[in-house]
Design goal:
heterodimer; A: alpha/beta; Rossmann fold; 6-stranded mixed sheet; 9 helices; about 35% helix; elongated; B: alpha/beta; 8-stranded mixed sheet; 6-stranded antiparallel sheet; 26 helices; about 55% helix; GTP binding (chain A); SRP_receptor_beta_su (chain A); hydrolase (chain A)
Chain lengths: ~300, ~650
């Protein structure tokens, strides 16, 4: 029986046959339902406020994540993929949003929850962090950035240079986010916590010095970036020929860079010391960082 | 011997590790950094297909396996003096075991999970070592056989329950502390209890039966019988000692389970309080035995090893079967249904990618890259790495395979082109000049790629930044080379007069040794307080060993801070060989520091040379030449290059 015969299956399929009609009806009704069930089977994740962990490799980002998520830092190696964890504030710190709430309020529990996004710090993999800065994260609004750095490495020139450059890139992106927006209201501010880790080490810089040293490192990057070559974006993509103006960090200011200059762009930078591993005997010292996180919630 | 075995997630968290000799963490860190992230293939010795690649670092050898779908890395570290042939097998088996046992857990958030993997690893280690060493293996098999025979009853007991393929999973997810941890601890410190303690074991079983009226008496009988059977079957001191161990372990469990029993039901507790007064050890047992699958390991401690073996074999076998079935084609019905489902999923997303799915799009992607002037070798390797990344992954909702592949390729390109460390030339110069010596930059390359032109462009850039620049004419071979530089310097002087920079030429005529001239130029610059020395070299064919050999002497004498190689954007598949040969020509411990890709304005969107060169050596592109003027020098914008390549 060929397909063009009068009683072939193809003819039957196009004939007003009750079976065909029923089948068609079934498909029409079932398809959207199935599609819906298929796509929405996984419910969208609860949108918790998100914090982004950035910082150079070896600063202790992943250690911090494991410490916050289950109480003790586990052994870690260089990360090559980002990871996320949902965390709850410890009972001792109260998030800013529920300051007036009773401790026994069951809904306060929800206000304590947040997501922490750990990103690899290796030079080749920073695009994970920088791209999640610019686009809205799937989990929820980005509430803050925790820039982890090694306070001991900051004392050396190489360490300071790397840290300064990464911090410069992050701050510049944040500034661009502010200046690049079209509406008058401006995007929600993303504060930055510079978490100086490894304060327990003998060679670590004290907290006040960390801030000065960082400002100096960022200033150096800012200076050379301002004079560096333009990048190849326009020439290669041949066409529009439009010179895109390069934006530097805190352009409008004279003198050496300070974190205060960024307040115009709604970037608040706070430096706080602590240590994930902690001194011998005493545990980790992350109270100040918790406090900052609680303030942002 | 093996020093360390670690199981870590790609996000960097060590999930499980076994250390025999402590190894500093930088060893594994450098494996991740250099091999997995930077993909420096020259540091890795690849096997002949059957063996795993090895990576050497500071007297250690590392072998590893990636479980991409779980995001796991299995690393074995051992001293390079030892030759261990069974490492490959160990890694394979352990990765199959670990993913089989904890696959479900690994899907979720891994940072909180605990992995009681110790007994499995020990056993696997023993087995793999034993299979390699014939003398121990025969003795080993005898002992294991005696252990294999008795537990027939426990086997049926287990079979009556249901066929659980992976008991380990259930154990892992069970709320209580896993049972085999106490086992190992007792193994480590054997408590030799006299055989008189043995009668208590069957007795406790009978009591167990009583506690639960639901359980059938027949099973109880069987258990008693099994206990009796096992006694004669196990001969020798060793097994009896094991029995003792088992009894000791049961006592531990009792202490644990007392609380559990307390909470469960008061009435039952009250019931057994009298019994427990006689023999307090007895009444906790119901908890330990209730879950049938545990019973066989906990109730009879001596069979733990056997159970582990069986379980491990099962998991490894299923992992192997999965591998085979994925390569074998299904039946007609299965395949056609699968094809329809596959088409559907291709549109909607959520399809698990296999090698067959990717084959065609990958071929298309490879052709696309070749059209963009990427060298064949680099294109093939890029596609391979993308394929490795994607196999076993699920596509997102409403994304086709092609678009998934596209994003993966874009990611791979970004990763390759992004430099590992900062390429801030000005900053490096200021660091070096602060130590009262000039910064030495030299340029090498094949004939006619634009070495002198790019050198003068760099000089112009430095002059704009108010540096004092000395240009050394170390091309003593080609006629007109020195004169050409002289003209450039004259022009640059004119241009930079207002800017405040200062530029001079250091020349010694033709026919002299280039390396000596370069060294002289550096000392001259030091005496006369120049900030930067730019050394121009003669162009040379990269596969001419005679010409290339002089580069080693050059690097030794002039000690450049930075050696840049100029490559044409026009060059095709030769780019890989050029980059590689030049990179290897400076002797041990010195290589290129970066590429300058010239004539980028002449190729349009066919910028594949960048990728070829970087991929061959892992060295970043520092500058792009985009025109004929001094100012036509640009930094690399990774995003725009990726866009061009993928368009």
């Amino acid at each position: 029986m060929a397909w063009h015969d009068a009683d072939s299956w193809l003819t039957l399929a196009f004939a007003p046959h009750p079976g065909t009609l029923a089948l068609a009806l079934l498909v029409v009704i079932a398809l959207p339902i199935l599609l819906h069930a298929y796509i929405y089977r996984r419910r969208a994740p609860d949108s918790f406020p998100t914090f982004l962990l950035v910082g150079p490799s070896g600063a202790g980002k992943t250690s911090l994540l494991t410490l916050l998520s289950h109480g003790a830092p586990s052994a870690t190696h260089t990360s090559s993929t980002p990871t996320a964890a949902s965390l709850t504030l410890p009972i001792t710190t109260t998030p800013a949003s529920s300051r007036y709430r009773s401790n026994n309020d069951p809904s306060a529990d929800r206000a304590r929850k947040f997501r922490l996004l750990d990103t690899p710090g290796h030079g080749k993999l920073r695009h994970y962090a920088l791209s999640s800065l610019t686009k809205t994260s799937p989990g929820g609004a980005l509430k803050g950035i925790i820039f982890v750095l090694d306070a001991a490495a900051l004392g050396e020139d190489a360490g300071a240079a790397e840290t300064g450059e990464y911090l410069h890139d992050v701050l510049l992106l944040l500034q661009k986010r502010h200046t690049g927006n079209k509406t008058s209201k401006g995007p929600a501010a993303i504060p930055v916590l510079v978490a100086a880790n490894k304060m327990d080490l003998f060679t670590a810089l004290p907290q006040s010095l960390v801030k000065l040293r960082l400002e100096k490192a960022v200033e150096e990057v800012r200076k050379t970036r301002g004079r560096a070559l333009k990048d190849s974006g326009i020439e290669l993509s041949a066409g529009d020929g439009e010179e895109e103006e390069r934006e530097g960090l805190a352009d409008g200011y004279e003198g050496t860079f300070g974190f205060k200059m960024l307040e115009d762009s709604d970037i608040e930078v706070k430096v706080a010391g602590g240590s994930v591993k902690g001194d011998k005997g005493e545990g980790a010292d992350v109270q100040e960082w918790w406090g900052w996180v609680a303030e942002q919630l | 011997m093996l020093d360390t075995f670690e199981i870590l997630s790609t996000s960097g968290v060590v999930l499980w590790s076994r250390t025999y000799v402590p190894v500093h963490s930088y060893v594994i860190n450098s494996l991740i950094r250099e091999v997995l992230i930077e993909e420096r293939t020259n540091k890795v010795a690849y096997g002949d297909g059957t063996t795993k690649p090895t990576y050497r670092k500071d007297g250690y050898i590392m072998k590893w396996n990636l479980a991409k779908d779980f995001g796991l890395i299995f690393v074995a570290v051992y001293q390079s003096l030892v030759h261990l042939t069974w490492i490959d097998k160990l890694i394979d088996n352990v990765s199959a075991l670990f993913t089989g046992l904890y696959g479900e857990q690994l899907k979720g958030e891994t940072s909180n999970a605990k992995f009681p993997f110790d007994p499995y690893f020990d056993r696997e280690m023993q087995r793999v070592e034993a299979s390699n060493d014939t003398s121990t293996s025969s003795a080993f098999e005898v002992t294991s056989n005696t252990e294999f025979t008795p537990p027939s009853s426990s086997g049926t007991d287990h079979g009556a329950d249901e066929p659980p393929p992976m008991p380990g999973l259930r154990k892992a997810t069970a709320p209580q502390k896993p049972i085999y941890n106490p086992d190992t601890s007792t193994d480590a410190t054997p408590v030799p209890t006299p055989d008189t303690s043995r009668p208590s074991t069957p007795a406790s079983r009978i009591l167990t039966g009583k506690t639960r009226p639901g359980s059938k008496p027949s099973r109880r009988d069987r258990k008693v019988k099994a206990a009796e059977n096992s006694a004669p079957a196990s001969s020798g001191d060793e097994t009896s000692a094991r029995k003792g161990k088992a009894a000791g372990k049961q006592k531990k469990n009792r202490v644990w389970n007392e609380f559990g029993a307390d909470e469960e039901d008061k009435s039952i507790n009250l019931d057994y309080s009298t019994v427990s007064a006689n023999d307090p050890a007895d009444f906790e047992l119901p908890d330990a035995i209730n879950p049938e699958s545990w019973g066989r390991t906990t109730g009879k401690g001596q069979f733990v090893l056997k159970d582990l073996d069986e379980e491990m074999d099962e998991i490894i076998a299923s992992a192997n079967a999965k591998k085979e079935s994925s390569t074998a084609a299904g039946g007609i019905v299965g395949s056609s249904l699968g094809a329809i489902g596959g088409l559907f999923r291709n549109v909607v997303g959520g399809k698990t990618l296999t090698k067959e799915d990717l084959e065609k799009p990958l071929k298309g992607m490879e052709d696309h890259l070749l059209k963009k002037n990427v060298a064949r070798e680099a294109a093939v390797r890029l596609c391979d790495s993308v394929e490795r990344d994607l196999i076993g992954l699920k596509t997102n909702s409403f994304t086709t395979i092609e678009s998934t592949l596209r994003t993966a390729m874009e990611r791979a390109l970004t990763k390759i082109l992004t430099p590992t460390s900062s390429l801030d030339l000005l900053r490096e110069i200021s660091t070096v000049t602060s130590t009262n010596r000039p910064y030495v930059l030299s340029i090498v390359g094949v004939n006619g790629v634009g070495k002198s032109t790019n050198l003068s462009k760099i000089a112009f850039f430095l002059l704009q930044n108010h540096h004092r620049v000395l240009i050394a004419a170390a091309d003593t071979f080609r006629s007109g080379a020195v004169e050409q530089l002289r003209v450039h310097v004259r022009n640059l002087k004119e241009l930079s007069k207002r800017e405040g920079g200062e530029v001079d030429i250091f020349e010694k005529g033709y026919g002299k040794d280039a390396a000596n001239i370069a060294a002289d130029a550096v000392t001259f610059a030091k005496e006369n307080k120049y900030d930067v020395v730019l050394i121009d070299t003669a162009g040379r064919r990269h596969n001419d060993a005679r010409l290339m050999s002089s580069l080693e002497k050059f690097a030794k004498l002039a000690k450049p801070d930075k050696i840049l190689m100029v490559g044409e954007a026009l060059v095709g598949s030769d780019a890989v060989a050029q980059a590689r040969n030049f990179n290897n020509s400076f002797g041990a411990g010195r290589g290129l520091d970066g590429f300058v890709i010239s004539k980028c304005d002449t190729v349009g969107d066919m910028v594949g040379t960048l990728v070829s060169m970087v991929h061959a050596t892992g060295i970043p592109v520092v500058f792009l030449g985009v025109g004929q003027h001094y100012a036509d020098l640009r930094g690399l914008n990774v995003g725009s290059v990726c866009r061009l390549l993928m368009s």
